[in-house]
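Reminder to self: tokens first, then the designed residues, so the page reads top to bottom the way the pipeline ran.
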């Protein structure tokens, strides 16, 4: 905390960092902290002394001196008062879904040997999170601690700074008020709202893209009989005699481990593809849907990556890593979706290139779930080519036509390319749409999907 006569330890809330700074401001800075009451007393005292001099009234002069001296004495006392306090902030949780509340916990410790005077705390909070919280602490004893908390809530996803904490010092008469700020701040991440989705069998899962998992060597290579040297405790039934004869020592087959099915969640963020804005817009519905699908598939054991039309995959070309890293992958995807905005991309070409590169330019990418905006003829053809890179594909497409025939005509090229198309209206329940993907794979009339079932 900066200011006259202060020595403060500023403790960060979530990262545990500690920064200490001690400064003594000038008396001029303390005079600038005179409140309206203090300035009024000072002006009234000066006026009374002038009138006493003109009129020759000694009693009036004494009154004027008293009125002018009171705020000046408060300035000197507050300037010479040394407050040594430590402040910390903790967010619970640090990542919260939109429209849900998070709690901010503040702690103030008096680390000096003297009690503090009247203190007022005010934390800096963006207006989208609510009003700025204020707390009045009458007195903190030496070595004492005060804890307060407040709630924040946002309807809009994003990353919002909270802090720095401001501390206002005032005298008992309200003549002087000094505002000093700590230096640390924390960040609250408001992620998209997610819905729990039912487990369904999607198109292409019978080929190893769903509940079942491929088996692959634990080390490297496609041949599951690539041998390694015998180790104590290995089962002799796994000895590879041909390699043993070739190397002159016992060789055993490599152990096998499951290979995670892969999925790419594609989010179309092109500005021209979406109409409207705000929490109830189609784009926000798609962002929440992408988050819901990503978390759902991660729970089912998929290696999931997020891809936008800008062509930058998250967390990387190979999606999520091991089961132990699924939580980290989910957090990274949610943090990315918390700040995703409209892009200026003209089309889906960069996403197609990233999708093709992810499969090495040859094999299939795995399952593809796409949240698409409005598509013209060129982008529809490109989306059809994306389907060729995936073992199974589900497209969620906003309804853009009032006439069912016109809507069906727009969806037909995607279905003919092998997509399972799920038209939606913003605000529609995603779990119900997700169940339709299961029925589509089973052959719902009017829908076409490639399936090994």
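Designed residues (453 positions):
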């Amino acid at each position: 905390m900066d200011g006259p006569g202060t020595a403060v330890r500023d403790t960060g809330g979530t990262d545990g960092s500690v920064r200490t700074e001690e400064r003594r401001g000038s008396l001029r800075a303390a005079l600038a902290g005179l409140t309206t009451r203090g300035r009024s007393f000072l002006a009234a005292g000066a006026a009374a002394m002038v009138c006493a001099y003109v009129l020759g009234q000694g009693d009036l002069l004494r009154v004027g001196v008293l009125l002018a001296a009171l705020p000046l004495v408060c300035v000197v006392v507050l300037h010479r008062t040394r407050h040594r306090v430590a402040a910390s902030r903790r967010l619970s949780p640090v990542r919260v879904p939109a429209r849900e509340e998070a709690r901010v916990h503040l702690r103030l410790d008096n680390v000096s040997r003297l009690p503090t005077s009247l203190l007022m705390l005010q934390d800096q909070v963006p207006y989208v999170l609510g009003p700025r919280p204020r707390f009045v602490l009458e007195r903190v004893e030496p070595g004492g601690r005060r804890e307060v908390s407040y709630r924040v809530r946002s309807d809009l996803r994003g990353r919002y700074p909270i802090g720095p904490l401001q501390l206002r010092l005032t005298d008992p008469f309200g003549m002087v008020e000094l505002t000093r700020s700590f230096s640390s701040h924390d960040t609250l991440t408001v992620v998209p709202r997610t819905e729990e989705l039912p487990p369904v069998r999607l198109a292409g899962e019978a080929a190893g893209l769903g509940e079942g998992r491929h088996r692959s060597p634990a080390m490297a290579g496609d041949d599951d009989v690539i041998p390694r040297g015998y180790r104590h405790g290995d089962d002799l039934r796994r000895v590879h005699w041909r390699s043993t004869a070739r190397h002159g020592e016992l060789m055993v087959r490599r152990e096998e481990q499951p290979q995670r099915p892969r999925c790419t969640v594609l989010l179309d963020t092109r500005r021209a593809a979406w109409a409207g804005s705000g929490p109830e817009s189609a784009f926000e519905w798609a962002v929440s849907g992408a988050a819901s699908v990503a978390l759902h598939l991660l729970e089912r054991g998929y290696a999931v990556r997020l891809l936008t039309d800008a062509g930058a995959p998250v967390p990387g070309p190979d999606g999520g890593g091991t089961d132990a890293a699924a939580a980290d992958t989910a957090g990274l995807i949610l943090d990315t979706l918390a700040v995703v905005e409209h892009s200026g991309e003209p089309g889906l070409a960069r996403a197609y290139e990233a999708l093709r590169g992810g499969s090495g330019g040859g094999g299939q990418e795995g399952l593809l779930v796409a949240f698409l905006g409005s598509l013209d003829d060129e982008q529809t053809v490109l989306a059809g080519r994306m389907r060729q890179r995936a073992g199974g594909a589900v497209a969620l497409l906003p309804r853009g036509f009032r006439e069912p025939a016109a809507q069906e005509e727009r969806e037909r090229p995607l279905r003919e390319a092998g997509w399972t198309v799920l038209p939606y209206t913003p605000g529609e329940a995603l779990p119900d749409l997700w169940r339709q993907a299961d029925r589509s794979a089973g052959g719902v009339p009017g829908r076409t999907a490639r399936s090994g079932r």
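Residues 58-80 form the longest helix (23 residues).
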